[in-house]
């Protein structure tokens, strides 16, 4: 089995756990921006320590990032901030599994963005997968109790679908940006390049969003600090999940990693049913099925 496969499955599980903890922070304590910043603030120091320890253990020299590295990393890091905020905000409109599934439009969009920015192939099977996935997103975007008098396009164009699709675009940009940044490093093994890229990204995110909170949401940073009982475990889950994603992106194309990463949907529904006690409608489950079919086509098309 290729190494990127178990790494991606592990990353998907940890990401699902992190979003679950972020959802808790959003609905109980913090604002959307605060719950987003908590993820970066509590994971950034852990990643920095990890890089230092790994450098000492491996005996490697620290790679020197060049302009190409930062040109990929900074847009990717900022896109991930906005994408995470979109997902956290989405939880106020739809239940946990539907919110995560709408976010998973990133699979289709990563394939397109990777083709545009990195020249990674887009076969006929991948194009079909994108169309199938679009049908799934439409079904999930239609509210549970729609106004039958409105046409379908009016029902699916709503805040939930807007946040979901926006997060998909932004997560697609961040995935491709991180892959480009990791590949731009001149030397170092896979784990060192992945962890250094992650450390640089979380540092940029912590500083950028922290400055915004200090200026626009007075007192929110103090509330994040006070929420450490939930935020600290979320930071650990975030670090482990992100490290898994970054390593997988270094080993494989962003589209294929994101395709396999849709196993997160299985974890999401298990958490939703057995932890949150939520239920999904038949239409929402059909939409999930279309997205899973899209995922399968992407995976097959990349073999």
From TrEMBL:
Keywords: Membrane, Transmembrane, Transmembrane helix
Transmembrane segment boundaries: 38-57, 69-93, 113-140, 160-178, 190-215, 227-247, 259-277, 284-302
Name of the protein this chain belongs to: Putative transmembrane protein
């Amino acid at each position: 089995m290729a190494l990127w496969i178990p790494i991606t499955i592990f990353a998907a599980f940890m990401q699902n756990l992190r979003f679950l903890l972020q959802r808790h922070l959003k609905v109980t304590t913090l604002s959307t921006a605060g719950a987003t910043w908590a993820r970066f603030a509590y994971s950034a120091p852990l990643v920095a320590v990890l890089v230092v320890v790994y450098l000492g253990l491996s005996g490697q020299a620290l790679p020197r990032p060049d302009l190409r590295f930062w040109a990929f990393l900074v847009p990717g890091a900022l896109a991930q901030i906005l994408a995470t905020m979109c997902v956290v905000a989405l939880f106020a409109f739809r239940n946990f599994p539907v919110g995560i599934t709408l976010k998973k439009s990133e699979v289709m969009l990563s394939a397109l963005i990777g083709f545009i920015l990195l020249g990674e192939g887009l076969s006929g099977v991948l194009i079909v997968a994108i169309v199938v996935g679009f049908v799934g997103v439409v079904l999930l975007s239609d509210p549970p109790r729609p106004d039958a008098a409105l046409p379908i396009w009016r029902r699916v164009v709503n805040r939930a679908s807007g946040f979901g699709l926006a997060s998909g675009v932004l997560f697609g940009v961040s995935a491709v940006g991180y892959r480009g940044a990791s590949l731009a490093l001149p030397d170092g093994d896979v784990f060192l390049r992945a962890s250094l890229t992650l450390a640089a990204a979380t540092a940029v995110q912590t500083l950028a969003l922290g400055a915004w909170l200090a200026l626009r949401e007075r007192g929110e940073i103090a509330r994040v600090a006070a929420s450490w009982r939930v935020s600290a475990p979320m930071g650990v889950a975030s670090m482990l999940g992100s490290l898994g994603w970054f390593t997988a992106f270094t080993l494989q194309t962003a589209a294929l990693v994101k395709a396999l990463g849709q196993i997160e949907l299985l974890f999401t529904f298990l958490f939703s049913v057995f932890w949150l006690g939520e239920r999904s409608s038949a239409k929402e489950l059909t939409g999930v099925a279309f997205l899973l079919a899209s995922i399968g086509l992407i995976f097959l098309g990349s073999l």
